[in-house]
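Side project, low priority. Logging it here so it doesn't get lost.
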Amino acid sequence: MAEKSGRKAVVLVSGGLDSATALAICRAEGFSPYAISFDYGQRHRIELEAARDVARALGAVAHRIVPVGLGALGGSALTADVEVPKGRAPEAMGADIPVTYVPARNTVFLALALAYAEVIGAFDIYIGANALDYSGYPDCRPEYLKAFETLANLATKAGVEGGRFTIHAPLLHMTKAEIIKKGIELGVDYGLTRSCYDPDPEGRACGRCDSCVLRRKGFEEAGVQDPAGIRGRGWPT
């Protein structure tokens, strides 16, 4: 991979394993990563603690947590009093758009990441979107990300003045197991990450929501133990 000589890049960091891996890849590709996370009224707000840990451990130059009022709109099991689905088989998850979909979330997040990129003079944005082991979210598809990249270059001062924004989604066509193996290769400590949509009051993963199921499946297929369980961030015991 060609060295980028420390060029700045903005990385969306949620605190989960996908975004942690995307941050590690960004750094490995020679960029100076600037992490951005969002406090959007999510029921699993504990993920922001993990985002701080991940950004620090993986050498982010800076880490901003931006408040976004998506919780005021509701419309999702992650932002409203709606039950989080539990116990679904992985093969059933992509059949429809689940109630854990947050309306326009990635569009809002990418727009704010784009604004941050303009402010710091960056033209590269990394997101841990995945189109294989994903839960049916329309804003994780490659055609969506390509469309947003087009928008970024049409709707910004930097784009109009001759800059070229690129949306990087390095995990897009990887399985969860492949993502985990790549992260381990790059030194990601997955014990710092959190994935659960509905953690218990102590912050431990439920083990049954879609995100927990996909995480467990990924570690099993990768043939490695999930270190989050060892550190009390995994399934309740």
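Brief comment: Helices lie at 17-28, 47-57, 105-120, 142-154, 157-160, 176-185, 210-222, 227-230.
Revisit when time allows.
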